[in-house]
Amino acid sequence: MDFEPPPMRTVTCNNVDIPYLAYDGDGPPVVLLHATGFLPWLWHPVAALLAPAHRVIAPFFGNHRPSDPRNGGLDWLQLARDLERLCTALQVQDPVLVGHSMGGTVSILAHVTLGVAVRHMVLIEPIFLPAEIYRMKITVEEHPLAAKAMRRRNSWPDREAVRADFMAKPFFRNWDPAVFELYITFGIRNDPAGGVRLTCPPEQEAALFMGGGHHDPWPLLPAVQCPTLVMEGEDSENRPWIDLTHAANLIPRGRHIMLSGAGHLIPMERPGEVGRALAGPVLSVKC
Question: Which of 12, 88, 96, 257 has its CA 20 to 30 A from that of 236?
Fold first, then answer.
């Protein structure tokens, strides 16, 4: 990477402040949507490969709408509306939407349900749960990911303690070193009471997980109107219960690729491959 992430900006949409990173450029706009509980700064190695040839926007859909995980959480359709309003406010037209995990599903909701015009979509390990799950009503305690988020540690004396803690966890073992350092820098905030805490608190991460169960994306896939690339990690823990090959086949101009040796966190593990995939044929195809 040749430069540091830009400063965070904020735009007010319908009385809600939406934070975002902006990389100035003249080419077709690219909007990068992060995964549940993560951050726009983690896209920086990808954005650095695309800018300045492209205008790159990376919103932070983490803390802008504090929500109660025990009261339905933060509905992902609301995030899709926020994306629509952000693009309107920033005059982002016909972008390439790149969504990881939660961000991939939000992209589908924005494009199909809300009619956001999109030049191309790249869905990286999108969360398309089995259809029957969307018909179930489960509590935070019954939701495996929300329950785990609620138990997440959220207090350390300093960033060095965070680094040592995270480096010992298998979860971070395959992360690109630069992305890992971005997470240590921006994924952790100073606590006014002393020490440091997660930028996206456990309760808010749990609210995001709970909000993903409100809308079944499967019926929307045949209505996608733009070329769409679905990227899947060969070693993703989601493969036994999310059929992304089938998802790509339901999209009229869908294409599926498998990244060998990658897990669910493809942008964190293989940012160079993601950036090169975007900078190549994806950005040259029109909807």
Answer: 96
